[in-house]
Amino acid sequence: MPKTPDSNLKAIAKFNKEKTVSVRLALNKNTDADIIAKLETVPSKMGYIKQLIRDDIRKNG
Description:
By secondary structure, the chain is mainly α. The protein is 61% helix and 0% strand. The chain has a domain at 29-61.
């Protein structure tokens, strides 16, 4: 795989800083096993979680 030029890395870092927010979710393997199991079945964890939140916003405002 070719190495990404420094200018591209800087542009990506700038975009991420200006346009994105990272959210980390730590799950306990014992108490959250059901959630972990479900997340392992979906094609996109991020897409699945975002859809759940959007559904909740539509339902509850």
